[in-house]
Design goal:
365 residues; mainly alpha; two-stranded antiparallel sheet; globular; transmembrane; P2Y4; membrane
Length: 365
């Protein structure tokens, strides 16, 4: 056993990660992979996420107005992704410097808070899109009632505030501590508070991930079932097929980015709390650290969804790439993720034109 293979000595017990503390019995951890995997993956996410989300926000603000409800959710999703990638340079330095944090305790708390804040905001904004899409396809009159842009903006504000409020305890749990010549920025908390942190983290995961995940699956399942029904003149509609493909893509992104991270993190915390065997802790530690970049990759994949599902967005982005200056502002209602077949039983009625929400009969939800 060489120092390069197993360089970080930690301990068997509820706090084996060198970022989180020590206990009594020795347990060798192979952490060398982390000092390569995390800086490289975070650097890639930073470059791609910033390069994709900043033009997206610019297009939403200046070339795709006025917004409908779906465009409102998409803008806030892009804003959340941008705020997250802006926090990555400090983490890139931290892991490249082998767990050394020279930026102070306050910034450590803020960066850890920002990661989870934007992670759960992204999940909830995707959930809002799925619910609105479900209403538009299966209950169009309700979508008219609840799909007004100003109501969508209000809901987005509520999402930002509720998630921030739920994560306030994280600011108290997260801290720094010296370890020889380095300063650790704990991803969880100090060792003596770890059991309390696990209870807090489990409650947050159930509320801000478990419930939205279930709602998203139900909404997409019911929407897909409705779209798969054979309807006169619409069975081979390209918009219906595109909508089904979009549902598959969104669920795939959800499964790749969010589910593995939360499952492995839960197993990792439980293994530490229950003082599992050292070899089990090593395996769980490696798997958990590998899934952390997957959660970050959501910031890069969301703009791809905008491109695949928004006709006006795709057109404006192509104009921006070709000439450096997009077309004049265009209403963003066609940014929505699905379209209602003209002959569908869910089609808009003429009365929608007189409703309080400005929703044309051909508008895509």
């Amino acid at each position: 056993m060489t120092s390069t293979e197993f360089s970080l000595l930690t301990t068997l017990g509820p706090y084996p990660d060198p970022e989180d503390g020590e206990v009594e019995l020795d347990c060798w951890f192979n952490e060398e992979f982390k000092f390569i995997l995390l800086p490289v993956s975070y650097a890639v996410v930073f470059a791609l996420g910033l390069g994709l989300n900043v033009p997206t926000i610019w297009l939403f603000l200046f070339r795709l107005r006025p917004w409908d409800a779906t465009a409102t959710y998409m803008f806030h999703l892009a804003l959340s992704d941008t705020l997250y990638v802006l926090s990555l340079p400090t983490l890139i330095y931290y892991y490249a410097a082998r767990n050394h944090w020279p930026f102070g305790t306050g910034l450590c708390k803020f960066i850890r808070f920002l990661f989870y804040w934007n992670l759960y905001c992204s999940i909830l904004f995707l959930t809002c899109i799925s619910v609105y899409r479900y209403l538009g396809i299966c209950h169009p009159l309700r979508a008219l009632r609840w799909g007004c842009p100003h109501l969508a903006s209000l809901l987005c504000l509520v999402v930002w505030l509720v998630v921030a409020g739920c994560l306030v305890p994280n600011l108290f749990f997260v801290t720094t501590s010296p370890r020889g010549d380095t300063v650790l920025c704990h991803d969880t908390t100090r060792p003596e508070e770890f059991d309390h942190y696990v209870h807090f983290s489990s409650a947050i995961m159930g509320l801000l991930f478990g419930v939205p995940c279930l709602v998203t699956l139900v909404c997409y399942g019911l929407t897909a079932r409705r779209l798969c029904r054979p309807l006169p003149g619409a069975a081979r509609s390209p918009s219906r097929l595109r909508s089904l493909r979009t549902i598959v893509v969104v669920l795939t992104v959800f499964a790749v980015c969010f589910i593995p991270f939360h499952i492995t993190r839960t197993i990792y915390y439980l293994a530490r709390l229950l003082e599992a065997d050292c070899w089990v802790l090593n395996i769980v530690n490696v798997v958990y650290k590998v899934t952390r970049p997957l959660a970050s990759a959501n910031s890069c994949l969301d703009p791809v969804l905008y491109f695949l599902t928004g006709d006006k967005y795709r057109h404006q982005l192509r104009q921006l790439c070709r000439s450096g200056w997009p077309q004049p502002p265009t209403a963003a209602s066609s940014l929505a993720l699905v379209s209602l077949p003209e002959d569908s039983s869910c089609r808009w009625t003429a009365s929608s034109q007189d409703s309080g929400c400005r929703t044309p009969q051909t508008e895509r939800l």
